[in-house]
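Homework-ish question, so no full write-ups if that breaks the rules, but can someone show me the predicted structure for this set?
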Amino acid sequence: MSCSEAESGIHSYLDGELDLARSLEVERHLKGCTSCAGAYEGYRALRSAINRGSLYYGAPAGMQKRIRATVRRASRAEGGAPGLRLSWKALWVPLTAACLVLLGALPFLLRPAPQSLLAQEIVAAHVRSLMPGHLTDVLSSDQHTVKPWFNGRLDFSPPVVDLANHEFPLVGGRMDYVGDRPVAALVYQRRKHLINLFIWPAPPGPAAREESEAHNGYHMIRWTKSGMNYCAVSDVNTTDLSQFVSLVRGPA
Amino acid sequence: MDRTDHLARFEESILPHMDAAYNLARWLARSDFDAQDIVQEAYLRAFRFFAGFRGNDGRPWLLRIVRNTFYSWLEKNRRGEATIPADETEDIGSEDAIPEKLLIREADSKLLHQAIEELPIEFREVLVMRELEGMSYKEIADVAGLPIGTVMSRLARARRMLRQRLAEHPGGKEQNELQRG
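A: Not a homework solution, just the prediction itself:
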């Protein structure tokens, strides 16, 4: 075994990654070559220094609990979806084949999908926002603080209304990312519940009518007004959410 | 699969690897705050993809997600951070270049810590998985999506860089002088 072969062999040897025959070759080489033997000793010393060095970062206290809670929340929000995904996974190969065959028809077949995908994304964004530290980028109950904050961050200016008098105080706003584009998210509060109001520009065309749906315990109302898409999502009851939406929409 | 089952199985096979997840994220991001964010995000992703998890060992599976989460985070947050282009073919050189009498043995852990933090990410991640997680080349290759040969050569270079940095460090030299004197 040459020194250059031994050079890489030393590491595999040190890591116990060599089979017996190769190990013996490395050992034989180390016995006869002081330079490689010195290197080997150096790496062994490095390893024991690393082992002694308390370099391992265990998860900080409290993190375990927080993440467990986050996952449980996500589980509740996703409902029965995991089972569904499992079967999609099993169907992957035939599905791919079918997709290839049906490529021409695909845009028509998939037409409803973007909507429900968007709804899922919005619920996910809502849940994510409820995690510690994710709710707001700008924390203010003042619409005149929140609205200008979006200047320069978004290519549109989301309308921000003050609903404090109707018991929907503004909590703040943040940037979010939904449906492959940055969107404005305004956060309002109703008692202990938070409402996320997502706003982004609507493509030109006739305004979509108001739609409401429920996703695993979260209610969602979507509408379009004055060239903007709106989507309000929350775990408040539907009556409160409808009231919130009609306040945001203002007089027709 | 029932939803509670799914959650229970996740909690049983993936949650226990949080130390490993945090350790990797912490060494990659070099900040407690960011590492906590990354681990949290990774766990949510892991939960989303959990239906696709096959196998017995959740650790490499989770670490792959942590690593991916870290890299997307990096792209978003530190666009400017350069990673040294990892020239895999670069000759790792002769061992004689390292003054062996210098003292890895005596390197204090703060120095060592700093030296590892300063390794380019490609080398740092492989080293952390091998030395701190005790993972096999095969597992590291799976997590990082690299051929085993590349894992091996990166690890060799990482260690070599570490030894060199520790040897070059003035503090280390002094200590060594003291020791000899």
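Now go work out the reasoning yourself. Hint: The first strand of chain A starts at residue 138 and ends at 139.
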